[in-house]
Amino acid sequence: NKQVIFKDYVPGILQESDMYITNSTIKLKVPSDTKAVLVKNLYLSCDPYMRIRMRSLQGSYFAPFNPGSPITGRGVAKVVDSSHPDFKKGDLVYGMTGWEEYSLIAATESLFKIHDKDVPLSYYLGILGMPGLTAYAGFYEICSPKKGEYVFVSAASGAVGQLVGQFAKLLGCYVVGSAGSKDKVDLLKNKFGFDDAFNYKEEPDLNAALRRYFPEGIDIYFENVGGKMLDAVLLNMRVHGRISVCGMISQYNLEQPEGVHNLMLLVMKRIRMEGFMVADYTHLYSKYLEMVLPLIKEEKIVYVEDTAQGIESGPSALIGLFAGRNIGKQVVAVASE
Ligand code: NDP
Question: Taking the complete model, does pTM exceed 0.95, yes or no?
Fold first, then answer.
Protein backbone atom coordinates (compact mmCIF):
# COMPACT_ATOMS: atom_id res chain seq x y z
CA ASN A 1 0.00 0.00 0.00
CA LYS A 2 1.83 3.12 -1.23
CA GLN A 3 1.29 6.13 1.03
CA VAL A 4 2.25 9.81 0.93
CA ILE A 5 3.60 10.69 4.36
CA PHE A 6 3.68 14.22 5.77
CA LYS A 7 7.15 14.73 7.22
CA ASP A 8 6.91 17.71 9.59
CA TYR A 9 5.42 21.18 10.00
CA VAL A 10 6.52 23.74 7.41
CA PRO A 11 6.60 27.44 8.36
CA GLY A 12 7.68 28.82 4.95
CA ILE A 13 7.52 27.58 1.38
CA LEU A 14 6.15 24.04 1.02
CA GLN A 15 8.41 21.67 -0.94
CA GLU A 16 8.12 18.16 -2.31
CA SER A 17 10.72 17.02 0.23
CA ASP A 18 8.22 17.85 3.00
CA MET A 19 6.40 14.67 1.93
CA TYR A 20 7.68 11.20 1.06
CA ILE A 21 6.33 7.92 -0.28
CA THR A 22 6.38 4.64 1.65
CA ASN A 23 5.18 1.21 0.65
CA SER A 24 3.81 -1.42 3.03
CA THR A 25 1.51 -4.41 2.91
CA ILE A 26 -2.11 -4.13 4.00
CA LYS A 27 -4.78 -6.80 4.64
CA LEU A 28 -7.65 -6.11 2.26
CA LYS A 29 -10.16 -7.04 4.96
CA VAL A 30 -11.97 -4.91 7.52
CA PRO A 31 -11.46 -6.11 11.12
CA SER A 32 -14.78 -7.74 12.05
CA ASP A 33 -15.10 -5.99 15.43
CA THR A 34 -15.28 -2.54 13.79
CA LYS A 35 -17.83 -0.54 11.79
CA ALA A 36 -15.26 0.54 9.24
CA VAL A 37 -14.96 0.62 5.47
CA LEU A 38 -11.90 -0.37 3.44
CA VAL A 39 -11.63 1.55 0.19
CA LYS A 40 -9.44 1.55 -2.89
CA ASN A 41 -8.69 5.21 -3.66
CA LEU A 42 -9.36 6.20 -7.28
CA TYR A 43 -8.88 10.01 -7.23
CA LEU A 44 -7.36 12.29 -4.60
CA SER A 45 -7.97 16.01 -4.38
CA CYS A 46 -5.31 18.72 -4.03
CA ASP A 47 -6.78 21.67 -2.13
CA PRO A 48 -5.12 24.87 -0.89
CA TYR A 49 -6.39 24.42 2.71
CA MET A 50 -4.15 21.33 3.00
CA ARG A 51 -1.17 23.69 3.17
CA ILE A 52 -2.70 25.29 6.27
CA ARG A 53 -2.87 21.83 7.90
CA MET A 54 0.90 21.56 7.38
CA ARG A 55 1.51 24.32 9.92
CA SER A 56 1.55 23.77 13.68
CA LEU A 57 -0.90 26.63 14.21
CA GLN A 58 -2.59 26.55 17.59
CA GLY A 59 -6.27 27.36 17.48
CA SER A 60 -6.45 27.13 13.68
CA TYR A 61 -9.82 26.22 12.13
CA PHE A 62 -8.03 23.30 10.44
CA ALA A 63 -6.52 20.60 12.67
CA PRO A 64 -2.83 20.18 11.77
CA PHE A 65 -1.76 16.94 10.03
CA ASN A 66 0.13 14.40 12.13
CA PRO A 67 3.83 14.34 11.20
CA GLY A 68 4.84 10.83 10.13
CA SER A 69 1.29 9.90 9.05
CA PRO A 70 -0.31 9.79 5.61
CA ILE A 71 -1.80 13.04 4.38
CA THR A 72 -5.58 13.09 4.61
CA GLY A 73 -7.88 14.80 2.14
CA ARG A 74 -10.90 14.38 -0.04
CA GLY A 75 -11.02 11.46 -2.43
CA VAL A 76 -13.21 9.30 -4.66
CA ALA A 77 -12.93 5.61 -3.86
CA LYS A 78 -14.43 2.15 -4.30
CA VAL A 79 -15.44 0.03 -1.33
CA VAL A 80 -13.37 -3.16 -1.17
CA ASP A 81 -14.70 -4.49 2.13
CA SER A 82 -17.10 -3.18 4.73
CA SER A 83 -18.44 -4.04 8.15
CA HIS A 84 -20.66 -0.96 8.08
CA PRO A 85 -24.36 -1.56 7.29
CA ASP A 86 -24.59 1.52 5.00
CA PHE A 87 -21.71 0.57 2.68
CA LYS A 88 -21.14 -2.59 0.70
CA LYS A 89 -18.37 -3.96 -1.49
CA GLY A 90 -18.40 -2.27 -4.91
CA ASP A 91 -20.01 1.00 -3.76
CA LEU A 92 -18.46 4.16 -5.15
CA VAL A 93 -17.96 6.80 -2.48
CA TYR A 94 -16.43 10.23 -1.95
CA GLY A 95 -15.30 11.97 1.21
CA MET A 96 -12.36 12.15 3.58
CA THR A 97 -9.76 9.52 2.86
CA GLY A 98 -5.98 9.10 2.97
CA TRP A 99 -3.22 9.77 0.44
CA GLU A 100 -2.62 6.07 -0.07
CA GLU A 101 -3.73 3.30 -2.39
CA TYR A 102 -6.08 1.74 0.18
CA SER A 103 -7.62 3.39 3.24
CA LEU A 104 -9.35 1.90 6.23
CA ILE A 105 -11.97 4.50 7.12
CA ALA A 106 -13.54 4.42 10.56
CA ALA A 107 -14.96 7.97 10.39
CA THR A 108 -17.73 7.00 7.96
CA GLU A 109 -19.79 10.13 8.77
CA SER A 110 -17.61 11.98 6.23
CA LEU A 111 -18.08 9.32 3.53
CA PHE A 112 -20.92 9.62 0.98
CA LYS A 113 -22.23 7.24 -1.67
CA ILE A 114 -22.07 8.33 -5.29
CA HIS A 115 -25.47 7.94 -6.94
CA ASP A 116 -25.18 9.94 -10.16
CA LYS A 117 -22.52 8.12 -12.18
CA ASP A 118 -23.04 9.57 -15.65
CA VAL A 119 -20.54 12.36 -14.93
CA PRO A 120 -16.77 11.86 -14.49
CA LEU A 121 -16.17 10.46 -11.00
CA SER A 122 -13.45 13.03 -10.33
CA TYR A 123 -16.15 15.73 -10.48
CA TYR A 124 -17.03 14.74 -6.89
CA LEU A 125 -13.77 16.43 -5.88
CA GLY A 126 -14.52 19.54 -7.92
CA ILE A 127 -17.73 20.82 -9.40
CA LEU A 128 -19.88 18.25 -7.54
CA GLY A 129 -17.83 18.42 -4.36
CA MET A 130 -16.36 20.87 -1.90
CA PRO A 131 -15.09 23.48 -4.43
CA GLY A 132 -18.46 23.49 -6.22
CA LEU A 133 -20.40 24.12 -3.03
CA THR A 134 -17.82 26.78 -2.09
CA ALA A 135 -18.41 28.66 -5.35
CA TYR A 136 -22.19 28.34 -4.95
CA ALA A 137 -22.41 29.45 -1.30
CA GLY A 138 -19.66 32.05 -1.63
CA PHE A 139 -21.30 33.68 -4.63
CA TYR A 140 -25.05 33.39 -4.09
CA GLU A 141 -25.15 33.55 -0.26
CA ILE A 142 -22.36 36.04 0.44
CA CYS A 143 -22.28 38.36 -2.59
CA SER A 144 -26.04 39.14 -2.91
CA PRO A 145 -25.49 39.30 -6.68
CA LYS A 146 -27.81 41.07 -9.10
CA LYS A 147 -28.09 40.96 -12.87
CA GLY A 148 -25.89 43.52 -14.60
CA GLU A 149 -23.41 43.95 -11.73
CA TYR A 150 -19.65 44.15 -12.26
CA VAL A 151 -17.94 41.04 -10.86
CA PHE A 152 -14.22 40.40 -10.40
CA VAL A 153 -12.83 36.92 -9.58
CA SER A 154 -9.19 36.21 -8.67
CA ALA A 155 -7.54 32.78 -9.17
CA ALA A 156 -10.35 32.66 -11.69
CA SER A 157 -9.33 29.55 -13.64
CA GLY A 158 -9.07 27.35 -10.54
CA ALA A 159 -11.39 24.81 -8.95
CA VAL A 160 -13.61 27.45 -7.35
CA GLY A 161 -12.96 30.52 -9.54
CA GLN A 162 -14.00 28.98 -12.88
CA LEU A 163 -17.42 28.20 -11.37
CA VAL A 164 -17.93 31.57 -9.71
CA GLY A 165 -17.32 33.26 -13.07
CA GLN A 166 -19.76 30.97 -14.87
CA PHE A 167 -22.45 31.38 -12.18
CA ALA A 168 -22.08 35.15 -12.45
CA LYS A 169 -22.37 35.00 -16.26
CA LEU A 170 -25.51 32.83 -16.03
CA LEU A 171 -27.02 35.51 -13.80
CA GLY A 172 -26.24 38.22 -16.35
CA CYS A 173 -23.31 39.93 -14.63
CA TYR A 174 -20.27 41.48 -16.32
CA VAL A 175 -17.37 39.25 -15.26
CA VAL A 176 -13.60 39.71 -15.37
CA GLY A 177 -11.09 37.21 -14.00
CA SER A 178 -7.41 37.31 -13.15
CA ALA A 179 -5.04 34.37 -13.53
CA GLY A 180 -1.32 33.72 -13.72
CA SER A 181 -0.63 32.75 -17.35
CA LYS A 182 -1.67 33.44 -20.93
CA ASP A 183 -3.15 29.93 -21.28
CA LYS A 184 -5.35 30.51 -18.25
CA VAL A 185 -6.46 33.92 -19.53
CA ASP A 186 -7.43 32.32 -22.87
CA LEU A 187 -9.36 29.65 -21.00
CA LEU A 188 -11.28 32.26 -19.02
CA LYS A 189 -12.31 34.15 -22.12
CA ASN A 190 -12.81 31.32 -24.60
CA LYS A 191 -13.99 28.37 -22.53
CA PHE A 192 -15.64 29.79 -19.41
CA GLY A 193 -17.20 32.80 -21.14
CA PHE A 194 -15.76 35.55 -18.93
CA ASP A 195 -16.24 38.97 -20.55
CA ASP A 196 -12.56 39.71 -20.04
CA ALA A 197 -9.49 38.43 -18.21
CA PHE A 198 -5.91 39.42 -17.49
CA ASN A 199 -2.61 37.93 -16.36
CA TYR A 200 -1.90 39.60 -13.01
CA LYS A 201 1.78 38.62 -13.24
CA GLU A 202 2.19 40.89 -16.24
CA GLU A 203 0.56 43.90 -14.62
CA PRO A 204 3.11 46.07 -12.81
CA ASP A 205 0.27 48.20 -11.39
CA LEU A 206 -2.78 46.15 -10.33
CA ASN A 207 -4.76 49.26 -9.46
CA ALA A 208 -4.30 50.64 -12.98
CA ALA A 209 -5.19 47.25 -14.49
CA LEU A 210 -8.44 47.02 -12.53
CA ARG A 211 -9.31 50.61 -13.45
CA ARG A 212 -8.87 49.62 -17.09
CA TYR A 213 -11.11 46.55 -16.83
CA PHE A 214 -13.68 48.22 -14.56
CA PRO A 215 -13.88 51.91 -15.51
CA GLU A 216 -17.12 52.13 -13.51
CA GLY A 217 -15.82 50.13 -10.56
CA ILE A 218 -16.42 46.66 -9.10
CA ASP A 219 -19.69 45.66 -7.40
CA ILE A 220 -18.60 42.19 -6.33
CA TYR A 221 -15.12 40.81 -5.65
CA PHE A 222 -14.74 37.06 -5.12
CA GLU A 223 -11.50 36.93 -3.15
CA ASN A 224 -9.27 33.89 -3.56
CA VAL A 225 -5.77 35.35 -3.29
CA GLY A 226 -5.43 38.25 -0.79
CA GLY A 227 -2.33 40.42 -0.48
CA LYS A 228 -1.62 43.09 -3.11
CA MET A 229 -4.66 42.13 -5.18
CA LEU A 230 -7.01 42.86 -2.30
CA ASP A 231 -5.45 46.28 -1.77
CA ALA A 232 -5.85 47.11 -5.47
CA VAL A 233 -9.45 45.84 -5.51
CA LEU A 234 -10.39 48.01 -2.51
CA LEU A 235 -9.34 51.08 -4.49
CA ASN A 236 -11.66 50.03 -7.33
CA MET A 237 -14.76 48.91 -5.42
CA ARG A 238 -18.03 50.78 -5.88
CA VAL A 239 -20.10 52.18 -3.04
CA HIS A 240 -22.13 49.36 -1.39
CA GLY A 241 -19.92 46.72 -3.04
CA ARG A 242 -19.54 43.22 -1.58
CA ILE A 243 -16.38 41.18 -1.08
CA SER A 244 -16.76 37.46 -0.51
CA VAL A 245 -13.57 36.31 1.21
CA CYS A 246 -13.16 32.70 0.18
CA GLY A 247 -9.40 32.39 0.66
CA MET A 248 -6.06 34.16 0.42
CA ILE A 249 -3.71 31.70 -1.22
CA SER A 250 -0.91 34.28 -1.68
CA GLN A 251 -0.48 34.18 2.11
CA TYR A 252 -0.37 30.42 2.78
CA ASN A 253 3.38 29.98 2.19
CA LEU A 254 4.36 33.14 4.11
CA GLU A 255 5.74 32.97 7.63
CA GLN A 256 4.19 36.37 8.36
CA PRO A 257 1.02 37.47 6.51
CA GLU A 258 1.31 40.67 4.46
CA GLY A 259 -0.49 43.77 5.67
CA VAL A 260 -3.54 45.18 3.84
CA HIS A 261 -3.39 48.97 3.63
CA ASN A 262 -6.67 50.14 2.14
CA LEU A 263 -9.19 48.72 4.62
CA MET A 264 -10.37 52.23 5.57
CA LEU A 265 -12.11 52.26 2.19
CA LEU A 266 -14.59 49.72 3.60
CA VAL A 267 -15.97 52.61 5.64
CA MET A 268 -15.99 55.32 3.00
CA LYS A 269 -17.47 53.05 0.30
CA ARG A 270 -19.83 51.20 2.72
CA ILE A 271 -18.47 47.86 1.46
CA ARG A 272 -19.55 44.57 3.02
CA MET A 273 -16.59 42.19 3.25
CA GLU A 274 -17.46 38.75 4.59
CA GLY A 275 -15.45 35.59 5.09
CA PHE A 276 -17.12 32.19 4.96
CA MET A 277 -16.33 28.50 5.35
CA VAL A 278 -17.97 25.98 3.03
CA ALA A 279 -18.46 23.61 5.97
CA ASP A 280 -21.22 25.93 7.22
CA TYR A 281 -23.22 25.41 4.01
CA THR A 282 -23.50 21.62 3.70
CA HIS A 283 -27.29 22.00 4.14
CA LEU A 284 -27.33 23.61 0.67
CA TYR A 285 -25.61 20.71 -1.06
CA SER A 286 -28.72 18.98 -2.40
CA LYS A 287 -30.13 22.32 -3.62
CA TYR A 288 -26.81 22.99 -5.30
CA LEU A 289 -26.83 19.57 -7.04
CA GLU A 290 -30.37 20.22 -8.29
CA MET A 291 -29.11 23.39 -9.92
CA VAL A 292 -25.76 22.22 -11.24
CA LEU A 293 -26.37 18.68 -12.54
CA PRO A 294 -28.76 19.83 -15.29
CA LEU A 295 -26.37 22.69 -16.16
CA ILE A 296 -23.55 20.17 -16.65
CA LYS A 297 -25.71 17.81 -18.71
CA GLU A 298 -27.04 20.62 -20.90
CA GLU A 299 -23.44 21.89 -21.29
CA LYS A 300 -24.42 25.29 -19.93
CA ILE A 301 -21.50 24.99 -17.55
CA VAL A 302 -18.11 23.42 -18.19
CA TYR A 303 -15.48 22.21 -15.76
CA VAL A 304 -11.76 21.93 -16.42
CA GLU A 305 -9.61 19.55 -14.41
CA ASP A 306 -5.88 18.99 -14.26
CA THR A 307 -5.13 15.32 -13.61
CA ALA A 308 -1.76 14.15 -12.27
CA GLN A 309 -1.14 10.44 -12.82
CA GLY A 310 -0.20 8.08 -9.99
CA ILE A 311 -0.01 8.55 -6.24
CA GLU A 312 3.71 9.38 -6.50
CA SER A 313 2.77 12.60 -8.31
CA GLY A 314 0.68 13.79 -5.33
CA PRO A 315 3.34 15.93 -3.59
CA SER A 316 4.33 17.78 -6.78
CA ALA A 317 0.67 18.29 -7.75
CA LEU A 318 -0.12 19.75 -4.32
CA ILE A 319 2.87 22.09 -4.44
CA GLY A 320 1.88 23.10 -7.96
CA LEU A 321 -1.21 24.88 -6.56
CA PHE A 322 1.04 27.47 -4.94
CA ALA A 323 3.07 28.03 -8.09
CA GLY A 324 -0.04 28.13 -10.29
CA ARG A 325 0.99 25.01 -12.25
CA ASN A 326 -2.55 23.60 -12.17
CA ILE A 327 -4.89 24.55 -14.98
CA GLY A 328 -8.33 23.97 -13.47
CA LYS A 329 -9.18 21.68 -10.57
CA GLN A 330 -6.12 19.64 -9.53
CA VAL A 331 -6.77 15.95 -8.91
CA VAL A 332 -4.49 12.92 -8.68
CA ALA A 333 -5.60 9.75 -10.47
CA VAL A 334 -4.48 6.83 -8.30
CA ALA A 335 -6.24 3.80 -9.78
CA SER A 336 -9.03 2.88 -12.13
CA GLU A 337 -12.25 1.25 -10.95
P1 NDP B 1 -7.16 26.70 -7.43
O2 NDP B 1 -7.61 25.56 -8.21
O3 NDP B 1 -7.57 28.07 -7.82
O4 NDP B 1 -5.58 26.63 -7.30
C5 NDP B 1 -4.86 27.62 -6.68
C6 NDP B 1 -4.52 28.75 -7.66
O7 NDP B 1 -4.18 29.90 -6.89
C8 NDP B 1 -3.29 28.49 -8.50
O9 NDP B 1 -3.59 27.76 -9.65
C10 NDP B 1 -2.80 29.89 -8.81
O11 NDP B 1 -3.42 30.33 -10.02
C12 NDP B 1 -3.35 30.73 -7.66
N13 NDP B 1 -2.23 31.22 -6.82
C14 NDP B 1 -1.30 30.47 -6.20
N15 NDP B 1 -0.43 31.28 -5.54
C16 NDP B 1 -0.84 32.55 -5.77
C17 NDP B 1 -0.34 33.83 -5.36
N18 NDP B 1 0.73 33.95 -4.60
N19 NDP B 1 -1.01 34.92 -5.80
C20 NDP B 1 -2.10 34.82 -6.60
N21 NDP B 1 -2.61 33.63 -7.00
C22 NDP B 1 -1.98 32.51 -6.58
O23 NDP B 1 -7.61 26.51 -5.89
P24 NDP B 1 -9.11 26.42 -5.35
O25 NDP B 1 -10.04 26.91 -6.37
O26 NDP B 1 -9.28 25.09 -4.76
O27 NDP B 1 -9.09 27.48 -4.16
C28 NDP B 1 -9.18 28.86 -4.42
C29 NDP B 1 -9.26 29.62 -3.10
O30 NDP B 1 -10.45 29.23 -2.41
C31 NDP B 1 -8.12 29.37 -2.14
O32 NDP B 1 -7.77 30.57 -1.51
C33 NDP B 1 -8.71 28.40 -1.15
O34 NDP B 1 -8.07 28.43 0.09
C35 NDP B 1 -10.13 28.91 -1.08
N36 NDP B 1 -11.14 27.95 -0.61
C37 NDP B 1 -11.92 28.34 0.44
C38 NDP B 1 -12.92 27.55 0.91
C39 NDP B 1 -13.78 28.05 2.01
O40 NDP B 1 -14.57 27.29 2.57
N41 NDP B 1 -13.69 29.32 2.37
C42 NDP B 1 -13.16 26.22 0.32
C43 NDP B 1 -12.34 25.93 -0.83
C44 NDP B 1 -11.35 26.77 -1.27
P45 NDP B 1 -2.77 31.50 -10.90
O46 NDP B 1 -2.02 30.85 -12.01
O47 NDP B 1 -3.96 32.24 -11.35
O48 NDP B 1 -1.87 32.29 -10.00
Answer: yes
